[in-house]
Design goal:
The protein is built from nine helices and seven strands. The strands form two sheets. The protein has a five-stranded parallel β-sheet with strand order 2-3-1-4-5, sandwiched between helices. The chain is of the alpha/beta class. The protein has helices at about 15-30, 45-55, 65-80, 80-90, 100-110, 115-130, 145-155, 175-190, 205-220; strands spanning about 5-10, 35, 95, 140-145, 195, 200, 205. About 50% of the residues lie in helices and about 15% in strands.
Length: about 230
């Protein structure tokens, strides 16, 4: 059985860095590993529209109904399903740099109470139920305060989906904080989640420290590749 590991967190939390580090570590153990990053901005029809959304083409964050926005992200994964199925069939571990929970957290952060719960449930049923996407075995939340995350976002190299220094979500500190709270709720209430803090006190932990903690969560699930 292929192990599916999902790395999640708000923008600027270091998901891409840690997903790549985990892949390198698994490859060094002789494990056939594929890293998958969503959204696939350039590879899918829906991914192109996600990029448009993040660049403000359809309005500001509070101007686009989150139920409708979530369809773009879900469509990107559904369009990728065949490619993803092949990747899972040919590898021991597939690492997701953002997956279905990212859709839940970012879109549900725009709602409260019963409406928030309704949207999370709806996305879960849409992506895992209607679209039949595989569920991850382990979700790792990289938890970071938004003010620290935005400092790290400012250091990012240019991205191919935007000409801006930060997209609509990255530049909105309120959105990042509300998204963080939804992520923490998911980590508390859904099975298979673990939270890794990216800060110690007010200091940012090193990438090596965070990598080691993530490895401690993944390694027990890989008895064949354990030291």
């Amino acid at each position: 059985m292929t192990l599916l590991v999902n790395i999640e967190g708000i923008d600027g939390s270091g998901k891409g860095t840690q997903a790549a580090r985990l892949q390198a570590r698994l490859l060094a153990q002789g494990c056939r590993t594929q890293l998958v990053s969503f959204p696939r901005y350039r590879e899918t029809h829906f991914g192109h529209k996600v990029a448009d959304f993040l660049n403000g083409r359809f309005g500001q964050l509070n101007e686009v109904n989150p139920f409708l926005a979530s369809l773009l992200y879900a469509g990107d994964r559904f369009e990728s399903k065949g490619w993803l199925t092949e990747a899972i069939a040919n590898h021991d571990v597939v690492i997701f740099d953002r997956y279905v929970p990212s859709n839940m957290a970012h879109q549900a952060s725009k709602l409260d109470g019963v409406e928030r719960t309704e949207l999370i449930t709806w996305i879960e049923q849409l992506e895992f139920g209607v679209y039949g996407l595989p569920r991850p075995d382990l979700c790792v939340l990289l938890d970071i305060p938004p003010q620290v995350a935005q400092q790290l976002i400012a250091r990012k190299a240019p991205r191919d989906y935007t000409q801006q220094a930060a997209d609509l979500q990255e530049s909105d500190s309120t959105h990042l904080e509300r998204t963080r709270q939804v992520y923490l709720e998911l980590a508390r209430t859904q099975p298979g989640w673990n939270s890794v803090s990216c800060v110690r006190g007010e200091e940012l932990r090193t990438a090596d420290e965070i990598e080691a903690e993530i490895w401690g969560l993944v390694q027990p699930l890989l008895p064949v590749y354990s030291d």
